Each structure stands twice: as C-alpha cells, then as structure tokens.
Amino acid sequence: MSEFIINKSIKLLVCDMAGTTINESGIVYKTLYNTIKEYGIKIDKNDIDNFHGINKKEVLKHFIDKDINFRSKDNVLEDLINNFKSNLRKNYFRNDSISLIHPELPVFFNYLRDNNIKIALNTGFPVDIQEEIINKLKMNDFIDDYISSEDVKMGRPHPYMINELMKRNNIKNPNEVIKIGDSINDILEGKNAKCYKSIGVLSGAENSEKLSKIGADLVLNNIIELKNYVKF
Q1: How far apart are CA 177 and CA 117, in angstroms?
Q2: Which of 63, 74, 62 is nearest to 38 (CA)?
Q3: pLDDT tens for residues 145-196?
Q4: CATH number of 12-24+99-229
Q5: Residues 34-52 pLDDT 10s
Q6: Is residue 158 left, alpha or beta, with left meaning phi > 0 and alpha meaning psi from -120 to 50?
Q7: Which CATH code, of 2.40.50, 1.10.150, 1.10.10, 3.20.20, is assigned to 27-92?
Q8: Which whole-number Å values give the CA distances from 42 to 38, 51, 65, 83, in the listed order?
Q9: What DSSP string describes 61-94?
Q10: How do 99-100 and 22-23 pair as beta strands?
Q11: How far is CA 139 from CA 63, 73, 96, 106, 210, in A?
Q12: Would you kindly state where each structural domain of the chain is located, as residue ranges?
C-alpha cells in the first residue's frame, strides 16, 4: 500500500460518472460513434477513443469541423446534439442498461460524508442527461453536489468544473481535493486543478499503463478500493 491516505485533511472527492461511479459498458461512446456515423459524417470506430471524458458537444463539433461536407452547413451541431441525446436516452434508460459501479458505493460515500468529506460528481454529459442518471440511480441520497461540463466555459481536461465545485462548497485549497476517474482527461483535469491526488480506475475507458503514463498518482481496479486508503 502506498503512503497516500484519505484523512480529515481531505474536504472534497470529485468523481467522474460513466466508468467510475456508473457501470454502463461503454454505451456513451458507442452512441456517440453511431450518432455521428448515421448522420453521414466521416468517422472511424477508433477515432472516438481520443475523446473519453470530454464534453460531448465539443466531440460532436470536432467531427463536424473535420468533415468538409458538413462544416459549413447550418444546424448540423444542433441536430447532432438532439440525435445524441435521444439515442443515449434510449440506450441508457431501457431496462437495466446502467447501474452503480459497485453495490457498496452508497455506503462508502456516506461513510466519507459522515467524516466531513463532500462527494461531487462531474461529467462530460449534457446536464439533463446527467440529472436523469442521478435520479434513476437515486444518487442524491449519497452525494453532495454535481456539475456538467455544460455548466462551465470549457470541460476536461481544463480544471473549471473542479474549480466551480470548490467555489460552491467553500473549499479554497486544491490540496483538500481528490479527483478520481477512468480516463486520461480525468487525470489531466485533476492535475490542471492542482488537486492533492488524481486517481485512475480501471473500471472504464483506459488501462493502467495509459493512466500511469499521463500522471495518475494511484491506479485502482475500481473506486471502492479507495476504502483501503481511508484513515480517520
């Protein structure tokens, strides 16, 4: 076990959603790819791999701008966003397509909250999709705050979502904040916000080598393994 511990000096844990706190088997990226391809915009299947964790509107705009046949057309971005949201709702909210990443997550988060560590979710999802997921999985019962990249001027890897969560929760020192996520952009976001630690998990997009190479301070199989580093 490393020397890293979570103790009462930590005030905020900022957690990614898909692949970190939410098990969704890569549905969001499959839906992004299919939405873009079905519209007729040029995209290869592995192109989407470079955009894990990024604001989904920014991803769609990137592929529009890249295709000369679409970059100057009106309403393409608006159409794609609407199509993506509609497709994602169908894929996410049918039957049991999504679930908590681990059944012990509510108990673990509430244990941290009982010890004065606030739990916040951040995401590259549109805010309405984010709220629907939170409501479906009853996450308001064990988190304190949440934010979408739509709520700030730029999403990951920029630090603005973490900065805003700190401001809302009256936390002035980034050394009191831990960021955890499954993508390279999650780790870069934490680094850019100067968080105490940026922790990677293997339950989503990336492998251990990529997360470590980009600067993850710790790589865990899943977020529940943080329990092994708590000492109050």
Answers
A1: 9
A2: 63
A3: 999 999 999 999 999 999 999 999 999 999 999 999 999 999 999 999 999 9
A4: 3.40.50.1000
A5: 999 999 999 998 999 889 9
A6: beta
A7: 1.10.150
A8: 10, 16, 11, 16
A9: HHHHHH-TTTTT-TTHHHHHHHHHHHHHHHHHSS
A10: antiparallel
A11: 33, 40, 16, 8, 29
A12: 12-24+99-229, 27-92
Q: Report the amino acid identity of residue 176.
A: E
| 102: Cβ contacts below 8 Å, ≥ 6 apart | 222, 223, 224
- pTM value is 0.91
Handedness of CA 127, 97, 158, 196 (dihedral sign): positive
Query: What is the full DSSP assignment across 158-209?
Result: SSHHHHHHHHHTT---GGGEEEEESSHHHHHHHHHTT-SEEEEESSSS--HH
Whole-Å CA distances, 73 to 58, 63, 180: 17, 13, 38
Separation between Cα atoms, residue 156 and residue 162, nearest integer Å: 10
Q: Is the previous residue joined to 106 through a cis bond, with omega within 30 degrees of 0? A: no
